[in-house]
Structures are given as structure tokens and as C-alpha cells.
Amino acid sequence: MSMIEFHDVQKYYGDFQALKDINLTVEAGETVVLIGPSGSGKSTLIRTINGLEPIQEGKLIVNGYDLADKKTDPNKIRKDVGMVFQHFNLYANKTVLQNIMLAPKIVLKRPDEENREFAMSLLKKVGLESKADSYPRQLSGGQQQRIAIARSLAMKPKCLLFDEPTSALDPEMIDDVLNVMKDIARDSSMTMLVVTHEMGFAREVGDRVIFMDAGQILEDDTKEQFFDGEPTNERARQFLSKIIVHK
Amino acid sequence: MIHIFATQWQSLLYGLGQTLLCSIIALFFSLIIGSLFAIFEIMPNKLMRIIGRVYVEIFRNIPLLVITMFFFVVLPLYVTKINGFTAGTIGLTIYTSAFIAETVRSGIQSVDEGQMEGALSNGLSFWQSMRFIVLPQAFKIVIPPLGNQFINLVKNSSVLAFVAGFDLMYQGNMIANDTLQTMPTFFAVGILYLIITMPLSYYMRHLEKKLA
Predict the structure, then answer these.
(1) Which of A83, A91, A107 sits opposite B133 (nearest CB)?
(2) Residues of chain B in Cβ contact (below 8 Å) with chain A
(3) Pick from A74, A91, A103: CB nearest B115
(4) N or C: which end of chain A has fewer CB within 10 A?
(5) Which residues of A touch B120 (CB under 8 A)?
(6) CATH numeric code, B19-166
(7) Ranges of each domain in chain A
């Protein structure tokens, strides 16, 4: 079964059309990288997948639930679809450990002992065991983002969405976060959708690359097609050449 | 004034007790009702937002005395008779809750939106996100203005005097009429109000520092 299916999805902010004729299928276990200039709708697209942005037309089926149906409770999807944000969005009033343990405790009713052990194992995985009792404001951006990833993983999601996870970070912190994400992509069967400008990440662990501009999907290629061949779309070629020059 | 305290301490103490009781009850319920309507005002559901807005706009724009009189005079005509203390406490609760709703709403809106989005995408429901993540941060921000509302509430409880609520103000009036010692009586009453409001004000400051 596909994890995510967009069928002719349209999304408007008032008169402005943010997503145009989106058709996209993501299979379970795939790692898909979304690129494109700012304002192209990548973030909007990824935010519709867990119901943070409603869509106005079309069908959007995530993990078997139709998000376009008003009767669908987005909460049912969010249990299985985690999200990592550009600005981390860690709970400012909770310690690192509490951040990770809160949702499993309340939503999944995971027993305390098991919850704590799993949270600590995730902290170890992201290399921040020593920060269990710190508050988010005491951590660097890179550390906060790794905690945010651990918090999402604590729900044992089937799918993880990343909305520009490294764009707000100092250059030196980016690798730490990318390494954690690469580990997840390699070691787990989780579906990953990643909005990013990190082409190295896309090359290394991406299965597919999607290029968006002006609310539309212009390219949907395998990684090999996109990087080693040539994107067929002129706008995508342009964009790609600029990014590669920067590298 | 010492003479007033010495001879009238029973009435004054009773009044102080009624004022304190009314204030505590009204504070407790107006905080709950106010927070609830504050949440209504920012809910995604439009109908709930309208309900919240209408409640706040109606009750913060009608004089407290009018609301209280409604419960003391109008309601008994059609429904059931309630005593002055109850009518005053209900009036005070409703009136104050409208102001608390505005205060708490501003607090909720000053919490970064990402906190709610983070909680929602983590699988928490709207109400769970409010309770565990947004409200604790919002209350911390609005402690100073909330303190003002609490102090206003204690002082506004003097509305009980109009509906025979036997509060401090009511007792002061009675004593002044009986003894004709107007100035010392109201000095004494003022001091007794300060005995409630000053510690409250001090405590809110303390809370503000502690949570900062």
C-alpha cells in the first residue's frame, strides 16, 4: 500500500493558489527529497500531509486516511506521521527528556519505565544523552534539532516529514543533524519526505528527487536521473546548476 | 479608628470573611471560565470563536452592578430567589471572567505558534496541546496582568454591599450609619481591604519572579 497519495490536489490561501494539480505517490519505505526555490510550495505540500494545512480540492490519502474528508481526524494520521520543523518547535516548558516522553505517554499510553528507556535510547542514538535534563533554550540549534528528531522517533512513526530541518542551523551544526537523518534513512523502513537544499543528502540517501516551482511539481525523478542525467525541465536545470556551483 | 476596631470588630471581621469568601470563589471560577472562553476565542472552529468573542464583548462592556442586579432582582422574578451574596458572587465571576479571557487570550497568542504545531504533529489533540504545552507558557507570560485582574476582583467584590451581601463594604456602611463615625469607619474598612490585596499583590510579584 502506498504511504501517501495526492490526487489532483489544489490548495489556496484566499485567491493565491499555493499548490496546483499535485499528483504524487510515495511508497512505504521510500526516501523522497523535495527541492525548489523558496515560495515554490514545498513546505506547504509537506504540511498538508499531516493536516497542518487543509487542502481545498482533490484527494489526499495518508496511511489509509483521506485528509480531504472533513470527517477524518488529522490526529489519527499524526500518530503515525511525525514532523521535524525548521525551527525545531521543542516544548519550551519541558526538559529534553519530557519533550520526548510526553506524546508516547499521553497518546500511546506507553508505560513509564518503557517510555523512559526508549527515550534514553533515542537520546543515545542522537548523541545527546547528557542533555536529558536540560531545557531546549540551553541547547544549540543543532542539538535542538536532533532532540526534535528523537521526539518524533519516540512515536515509532511509519513516516517522517522534514521541513527544511537544517536551514536555520549554523554550517557547523548541519552535519550532525544530517548524519542522524542518514542513519534513519539507512537503518529503518520509515518513509521519509525531506524538504531541503542539501544536495549531498539527496544524493546519498534519497530514492527520488522532486522539483517544485510556483506550486507545481515540475520534475519527479529517481536520484540517478536527476543528478547524473539531466532534468528535462528547464527551470529545474537552472536551479540545479546554481546549487552545484555553490558546492 | 482604633475605637471602631475595638467596638465593631465582630461586624468587621464578618465582613472581611464574606469579602474573602466571595473573592476566593469568584477568583477560582472566573479563572476557569475565563481560560475556557480564551481558548474558544482562538479555536480553529469559527462557531466557537464567535461564542468566545460574544461572551467577552457582552460581559466586559456591561457594568458589574447591572450584571449583579440581574441575578439579584431580575432572575428571582422568573426563576428562583437567590440571596445577595450568591447573586454578587455570580455577577463578579462572570464580569471578571470576561477580562480574564482577554488576558489569557493575549497570553496564548504570544506563545510561538510552533509550540502548538509541534504538539499537534507529535500526535497530541488540540486540548492536550493547550493543556500541556501552550497554557503553561501563556500563564507565565500573563501573570502581571492577571494579578491586576485578581486585585480588581477583590475590590469589585464591594458590589455585594448593594445587594445585602454582608461584605466588608456593607458592614462599613452599617457601622458608619449607626455610629456616625464616618471617617474612622471607612479608614478601617480601607485598611482591611489592604490586608487582602497587599499580600495578593506581593504573592503575584513573587510568582512572576519565581517563574521567570
Answers:
(1) A91
(2) 112, 114-115, 117-125, 128, 132-133, 136-137, 140
(3) A91
(4) C
(5) 52, 74-75, 78
(6) 1.10.3720.10
(7) 91-156
Report yes or no: A218 and A227 within 8 Å, Cβ to Cβ: no
The answer to whether the Cβ–Cβ distance between B124 and A106 falls below 8 Å is yes
Q: Cβ of A91 and B118 within 8 Å?
A: yes
| A99/chain B closest Cα distance in angstroms | 10
**Residue A116 burial (10 A CB sphere; 0-12, 13-18, 19+):** middle
Cβ proximity of A211 and A233 under 8 Å? yes
> Which residue does chain B place closest to A54, by CA atoms?
B44
pLDDT in tens, A9-27: 999 999 999 999 999 999 9
How confident is the model at residue A126, as a pLDDT?
A: 93
Q: How confident is the model at residue B211 (pLDDT cuts 50, 70, 90)?
A: confident
Contacts of B137 in chain A (CB under 8 A): 92-93
CB contact under 8 A, A89 and B118: yes
Rounded to whole angstroms, the Cα distance separating A205 from A33 reads: 9
3-state secondary structure chain A: CEEEEEEEEEEEECCEEEEEEEEEEEECCCEEEEECCCCCCHHHHHHHHCCCCCCCEEEEEECCEECCCCCCCHHHHHCCEEEECCCCCCCCCCCHHHHHHHHHHHCCCCCHHHHHHHHHHHHHHCCCHHHCCCCHHHCCHHHHHHHHHHHHHCCCCCEEEEECCCCCCCHHHHHHHHHHHHHHHHHCCCEEEEECCCHHHHHHHCCEEEEEECCEEEEEEEHHHHHCCCCCCHHHHHHHHHHHHHC
- Per-residue pLDDT tens for B84-125? 999 999 999 999 999 999 999 999 999 999 999 999 999 999
Using the Cβ of A105 and the Cβ atoms of chain B, whether some distance falls under 8 Å is answered with no
Nearest one of A29, A28, A23 to A60, comparing CA atoms: A23
Size of interface A-B (CB pairs under 8 A): 63
Contact A196, A1 (CB under 8 A): no
B128 interaction partners in chain A (CB closer than 8 Å)? 106-107
CB A87, CB B114: distance < 8 Å: yes
Given a cut of 70, is residue A87 above it in pLDDT? yes
A152 interaction partners in chain B (CB closer than 8 Å): 122
